[in-house]
Amino acid sequence: MMKYLVLSRRTPEFRREVLGEHYTFLDRLRDAGRLECAGPFTDQSGGAYILIAASLDEAKQFAFKDPLHTQGCSQLDVFEWNAG
């Protein structure tokens, strides 16, 4: 299993009410052992989280189910991350 960095940047269509669904999504990933850590940027432009997955494709499959992404509130980029 590898670590994948998910960068989430808010779009002009961002809606604060979607955050509850986003946090539930992250909780489910954490409960499944797929989320290492997560948090917002202090400038409120978005946030980041670290996924644990078998491949970049699998990480993208998880990340692109994030309600912030599916509802057009954030653009996501997923990177394989060789973090120590």
Provide an overview of this structure.
- With 84 residues, this protein is α+β, with helices and mostly antiparallel strands.
- The protein has a single domain (2-81), classed as Dimeric alpha+beta barrel (Alpha-Beta Plaits, 2-Layer Sandwich).
- The chain is 30% helix and 37% strand.
- It contains 3 helices and 4 strands, in the order βαββααβ.
- It has helices spanning 19-31, 56-63, 67-70; strands spanning 2-10, 35-40, 46-53, 74-81.
- Strands 2-3-1-4 form a 4-stranded antiparallel beta sheet.
- Strand 2 (35-40) and strand 3 form a beta hairpin.
- The protein is globular and about 35 Å long.
- The two termini are 13 Å apart.
- The model has no long low-confidence stretch (mean pLDDT 96).
- Belongs to the YciI family.
- Residues 2-82 form the YCII-related domain.
- Pfam families: YCII.
Write a brief structural summary.
This protein is α+β, with helices and mostly antiparallel strands and 84 residues long. It has a single domain, classed as 2-Layer Sandwich (Alpha-Beta Plaits). Helix content is 30%, strand content 37%.
